[in-house]
Prior knowledge:
The complex is a heterodimer of chains A (184) and B (210). Chain A is mainly alpha-helical. Chain A has 2 domains: 1-121, Rna Polymerase Sigma Factor, Chain: A; 130-184, Winged helix-like DNA-binding domain superfamily/Winged helix DNA-binding domain (Arc Repressor Mutant, subunit A), CATH 1.10.10.10. Chain A contains 8 helices and no strands. In chain A, helix 1 (2-16) packs across helix 2, helix 6 (134-145) crosses helix 8 and helix 7 packs across helix 8 (161-183). By secondary structure, chain B is mainly α. Chain B has one domain (20-207). Chain B has helices at residues 3-11, 21-43, 49-53, 56-78, 93-109, 112-115, 121-146, 154-174, 182-207. In chain B, helix 2 (21-43) packs antiparallel against helix 7 (121-146), helix 7 runs parallel beside helix 9 and helix 8 (154-174) runs antiparallel to helix 9 (182-207).
Amino acid sequence: xxxxxxxxxxxxxxxxxxxxxxxxRLLHAISPVLRGVVRARGRALPPDQHxxxxxxxxxxxxxxxxxxxxxxxxxxxxxxxTRYKVADAFRRRGVAxxxxxxxxxxxxxxxxxxxxEGMEAAQExxxxxxVLDARSAEIVRALKLREEAPAQVAQGMGMSEGALRVxxxxxxxxxxxxxxxxxx
Amino acid sequence: MNTDDLxxxxxxxxxxxxxxxxxxAGSVLFAAVFPAALFxxxxxxxxxxxxxxxQPIVALKTVLPALICVAALAAFVRLSRPEVSRPGLGWLIxxxxxAAALVLRSLITAPSEAWFAEVSAFNLAECMGGILVLSLxxxxxxxxxxxxxxxxxxxxxxxxxxxxxxxxxxTGYSLFCVQDNPMFFVIWYxxxxxxxxxxxxxxxxxxxxx
Lengths: 184, 210
């Protein structure tokens, strides 16, 4: 989890120096997390309004971005704004955000958004890995996601370390090509 | 509007100036000191102020609201960060406890005829009216300034704005006021400070939403 913390705060710092690209990347990175929070708490609202609320939260983050202190972690700041604006958006639509007792809600909230975030990141990676054959995907998972020792992985898959390295290289190349095609 | 388009639009905006909480506090403090200084320049401090300030009980009439003002102002600016939900109200306990102890002491040691000896329509109107008038400008400035921040507890921010403004006003007013009975200044300063604080809380709940 500290990875997103470093990534997001780094992007925000760059944004505060006037780097619009980093700022856009940050907003893109947090949007799926916001979507998860809105989805989890807005069961009483029709789904077509969820994206409106996500946009309201993004605009609030934008309007209040000068209140983040660069020496403080960014996630508590982001989640505080999100919690406030989501509750506000639901109240203005006359819908109670999934009614739970306040304290329990606050506790659950941090956990839930962290879990949603993790899930969505995992889904995204799995989606990406689905372009590979099962064996290559497993090599990427073992070496790049779980960071297992190459020697062990090679032994487990019944191949030499050299062959493993070649397979990994090919798999990553293929992923890179897939990403580029999908981005452009 | 598509979310990607929205992000592209937001990203095109210039980078903001970071929030400066020290300057926020300074502005509110200045807004409290300025009208009080005008008031004292026009009507003058009480005769023999220096000597009265040497008496501990009388000095507390000035020191207690000053302590409350500083503690409330510090909590007020801390609360302008959205992630802060507990602004550190503990510092208010000390002056409030001393004020309560002063009243208790009077109730025990002073004869009951002396408790409300100074209470008259004129004295109450002068004292409470003076503090109320002096608190208007700093309270207005504090509520305006709070909008630069992102308090996720607008009512509490409003309450703290009112408490800082009214106790700041009372600090200045105390240099003019000739009522040295703790039963008088704790209760009636306290009452007008409470009224301003509650009104400011109600305003904050409306004005400080974002």
